Amino acid sequence: AFEGLTERLQKAMRNLRGKGKVSESDLRATMREIRLALLEADVNFGVVRKFVKKVQERAKGADVLEGLNPAQQIVKIVDEELTKMMGETAVPLNKSDKIPTVIMMAGLQGAGKTTTAGKLALKLKDEQKARPLLIAADIYRPAAIDQLQQVGAQVEVPVFSMGTDVDPREIVEKGMAQAKEDHNDYVIIDTAGRLQIDEKLMDELKDIQEMVHPDEILLVVDAMTGQNAVETAEGFNDALDITGVVLTKLDGDTRGGAALSIRAVTDKPIKFVGQGEKLTDLDVFHPDRMASRILGMGDILSLIEKTQKDYDQKQAEEMAEKMRENTFDFNDFLDQMKQIQKMGPLEDIMKMIPGMANNPALKNVNMDPKDIAHIEAVIYSMTAQERENPDILNPSRRRRIARGSARPIQEVNRMIKQFNSMKKMMNKMSNGNMAGMENMMNS
Ligand code: GDP
Ligand code: MG
């Protein structure tokens, strides 16, 4: 997602690169490009106007034009303002003091309410060892109840339903009673949607809202619908005073407009994003990470989180220690390769690394299991001493390793080079600085 926007924003700012000094007209031209990029990405017009004004003011106020590295400073301002536009920090799910915490899903038909209800139940189970109950209150779509039951079965969460002949209000009332009896700590109510906002739907949702006083009313909107998603959010918010938004289908070919506008327009936080059809594809929304992703600076924190989830804790700590001490060696490299292989498609992972997001070289990276096997062969042909001290790998040692692993010498050289750049990158990452931006500006 967002490739088009990322490319255009980068292009807009590339013009400033290398300039020791930026003239007013350079700045104006850049801002015009940024404005067009955002509008083309279907960001709300008013939001764009405010954004551009803010960035321009700050750029002038900060004396960027006189400063040492104007391009970098402007990237930083754009990054910060994009982050603000999306809400600054992640907002956690509301939680009630006494059980159950009640979450009501709302949204148009097909937005992803039922799927998200299941994803959320799974997340609560996984992360809080919660015992949620799902309530099937969509009686209008014939298959809706079946669908929720299937989702519930998949995530092993009970589903309360009374078929399609009972009024949703009564279903919710009975479902709540059931949850109290069973001491469920969360109740997630899957409601009906319509193709468009209409009175009957809103009345039904408002009645349910008044009955159960949800701790959380999550509006589910489809990111692919761009500005329509924003309008929908406004409509629902006016009627229900929602507490948060879930933006689904961010994995699809979206331009970014919804993600960038919803917070600014409704003043309600995006709490989660759906990034796929699988029930594990629900992520907490982090405005700062999203901004970096949009700017093509990579989503390094998500990468680290993903890595840590698949690493065991001890191993992660060891690796961090190695990065700090700069003692990363070929044994770690091999471990790393195997971990990466376990984590899924390498391309997805590489995209999260700063400077890699739009790196054309990425297109040539193909890391199939065979490659890993070759890397393994090469590393196993090193002596223990060589693995621990890659610096001693002189040409004659390299030739011996090539013979031993039956791989061409060029490949051995290439791999050593890869290793060195990985080490360098890790070193940069561990210094936790603006590696991403530097990378972007220098690439
Ligand atoms: P509802 O009518 O609001 O309950 O929507 P559903 O939960 O039935 O979802 C409608 C369709 O969107 C289904 O085919 C889902 O698999 C799909 N869907 C939901 N969330 C996502 C997402 O984050 N990414 C993708 N690719 N598909 C999604
Ligand atoms: Mg549904």
TrEMBL record:
Name of this chain's protein: Signal recognition particle protein
Keyword Cell membrane: no
Known partners and oligomeric status: Part of the signal recognition particle protein translocation system, which is composed of SRP and FtsY.
Domain comment, as recorded: Composed of three domains: the N-terminal N domain, which is responsible for interactions with the ribosome, the central G domain, which binds GTP, and the C-terminal M domain, which binds the RNA and the signal sequence of the RNC.
Reactions mediated catalytically: GTP + H2O = GDP + phosphate + H(+)
Gene: ffh
EC number: 3.6.5.4
HAMAP family: SRP54
Localization terms from the record: Cytoplasm
Family: Belongs to the GTP-binding SRP family. SRP54 subfamily.
Keyword match Transmembrane: no
Species this protein is from: Nicoliella spurrieriana
InterPro entries reported for this sequence: AAA+_ATPase, P-loop_NTPase, Signal_recog_part_SRP54_M_sf, Signal_recog_particl_SRP54_hlx, Signal_recog_particle_SRP54_M, SRP, SRP54, SRP54_GTPase_dom
Residues in AAA+ ATPase domain copies: 99-277
GO MF assignments: 7S RNA binding; GTP binding; GTPase activity
SUPFAM superfamilies, per database record: P-loop containing nucleoside triphosphate hydrolases, Signal peptide-binding domain
GO CC field: signal recognition particle
Domain SRP54-type proteins GTP-binding positions: 100-296
